[in-house]
Amino acid sequence: MQRTNIPNSDLPDAVSSYSGVNLVWLAPCLLALAWLWANISAVKWLLSSFVEIPTLYKIVIGFLIVALVVRSSGNSDRPPGFSPNFVLRRYPLLLMLGAGICSIALQCIIDIKQITVLLFILGTYGLCGLLVEPNFWRKNLPVAGLLACILPFNSQLNSGLGLPARVLTAQVVEQLLSLLHIGAISSYDIIVLENGIAHVDVPCSGIKTLLMGTLFLLTATWLEGRKLSLTWLGVCAANFLMLLSANALRVAVLVLVAQVFQQPNYAAMLHVPLGIVGLIGACFLSWLMLQKFPKFQETKEIDFNSQRDLEILKNPTLAKPGLIVAVAVLGAISQFYHVESEKLAIASLKFPESIVSESIPLNPSEQKFFGNYPGTQTEKKRFVSGNLRGSMLTVASTSWQTYHAPELCFVASGIPVNRIEIKQLTPAVTARWLSLKDNQLSATYWLQSAQQTTDNFLSRIGSDLTHKNHTWVLVSILFNSSIQAENYELKEFASNVYDTVKQSLIGEINEN
Prior knowledge:
By secondary structure, this protein is α+β, with helices and mostly antiparallel strands. The chain has helices spanning 13-38, 40-52, 55-74, 90-109, 113-128, 134-139, 141-150, 162-179, 207-223, 230-260, 264-290, 316-340, 364-371, 406-412, 457-466, 488-511, and strands at residues 184-187, 190-193, 196-199, 356-359, 377-385, 388-397, 417-426, 429-436, 441-448, 453-454, 472-479. Strands 4, 5, 6, 7, 8, 9, 10 and 11 form an eight-stranded antiparallel sheet that branches.
């Protein structure tokens, strides 16, 4: 037998194989890095939220995530396929890019970190769908939904979403009571009746109920192996509406029992049971609708790296670099907006000589609340202006999430709120006027920007949607006695405070 001589390669075999592996991993690594960069704010918020929660809760979340992963892997007849040579499949690609675009759009419109993190987790699962077997990815899509709902809301559950939810609940209950010919005014987080007030507190916001109901629907979908579709999204929307309606009815019943029928003890007893009944009822109806959906059927894949799902982008040679560039562009847009939104601070308040004031420290609850928003500027002063005496708190911020209704502070401090009215203190100031402590004290507050003044927190939230005014100041004043809103001295005092705040805002704008 004749031996054939094979020329030796200049490079060792081991080096050649490793170089090939590195080239294979280059594209997915670049895509992952671009995706993380595009969502860096969500990643930072998610990591910081884990630092704040108790260790026991971290352990519970960790065990839950491991259980979900093990359960999802154990459901498959064979281990999930994985390849670094990712395939641009339609639905994972749409989920990733759709989540990324929606996240940036929502940050530009109204920045709620929990929603941003939720979209980041869903988009990350879409990215994983480019690397794993399609059957495994589609079957365990509800697991991604579970993680997306659990992780962003592990701490600060009602931060950001709590205020709009309580405002919506209070206004819906106001309309329900009006149908029963019961006079009521929805004042943000408080329902004001003729014979008292009902505080729509954190449990009444319905955020926890929405979270638990959504987790139930996703878990039932996953365990029963139901197929996700556009119709399933309709069931999810119906589940949301049922949960919101059940919570609004619960608050309406509590208001009727506590304030109309004057039975606060019974209302306290019914608070939790009514919430549980509403949650169970909505979940049961959602489960019944879920039974109409077909179960997930695995499709037979000839080749894991098959390109037959590549229907959006026809050129696989340019598609992968194009996807990496597209994600990098999303990251650049996200970083650009993040830098541009960092505007804050007003000049220090300088009152006229007719107002004698001195600074006083924030109380512990105020320090804790505003400590969560390091970009917020607060000033608290004790003042004397003629016969008027009291204290004043101003809160300057570029985010509506910094604010909450001052009447909540009064209620939490043990000062009962007897009446809330809308008063025109000056031609430029429309404010909320409060009668406190059996009409022994009076208070007022308004929100002010360089171009606008309002008594309505919803208008303040709306300004973030239109971006007409960046910096707002909440002016909250508590008087040491009961006075009339029509008092001439009060009107002059309110005008001086308004002018001082406006001058501070204008000074901040000129400095920038």
